[in-house]
Amino acid sequence: MTDAAVTSAAPRKRSKRARPRPDAWAWTGITIVIVGLVLAVVGPWIAPFGVGNIVTTVYAQPDAQNLLGGDVLGRDLLSRLLHGARLTVGVALVATILGFVLGMAVGFSAAEIRGRYDDFITWLIDVFLSFPPILLALIVIASLSSDLWVLVGTIAVIHSSRVARVGRAVAMNIAALEFVEVARARGEKLTSILVREIWPSTIRPLAVEFGLRLTYSILFLSSLSFLGLGIQPPDADWGSMVRENMNAMQNHAYIAVLAPAFAIAILTVGVNLIVDWLGAQSGRGISEELTK
Q1: Domains in the chain, CATH or no CATH each
Q2: pTM of the prediction?
């Protein structure tokens, strides 16, 4: 047997590619998100005052006791920011996770079952997408109140229709591959096919979608709170803080408005930096698979 034959008969070993590390912008985003998560967990514990305690004068200037000054009622602005981090980040994260799980379950099952079920799910998704999200949220919340779990459920349902559409599109391509056909031939159940075969192959594109949905949740919750239909007093989130302190601009207490607005902006920028990096890596991974 010639050397060439021996070489061709030998099993091919897949070369292990080193996973690309995050660049400087991605690390910046990761740092911002980690800080936001830490503040959401420990913020109320390290806040100097309670969320509703009046400890200074209206729109007081920053001093040694109130590092960021006071708000519209004389409450400590820093304490309100720290308490608001838990609701802003927590509600957005929980709503995104719930919406993502629901959307993936619906989209993946539609891609696998197909037929009339797929037609019905596609029609249902189109119906939900035809409603402006803010209008749908206003109708639901105005009817059911601004309870915390109503907010979470409303945002989750709004997310689920969009995630279902993306998940269905991604899963349709995966469901046509050979290893999924083999799983069907083995007689595996629908749940096993979705979880063990389709889900692992969709992690990268859906991770990008999760980041986009999380950014949308933060901005959407802040918008609802700004309109007075989000988190209700005496609790605080960053969107409601902007609404409460709008008159601070006339009193030259700019930090009362800029501090929560900056917190919203920097957190969404951090998530977007991670999403940009994940999106680049996802596209690179697909191109590498196509060139094998």
Answers
A1: 69-283 (1.10.3720.10)
A2: 0.81
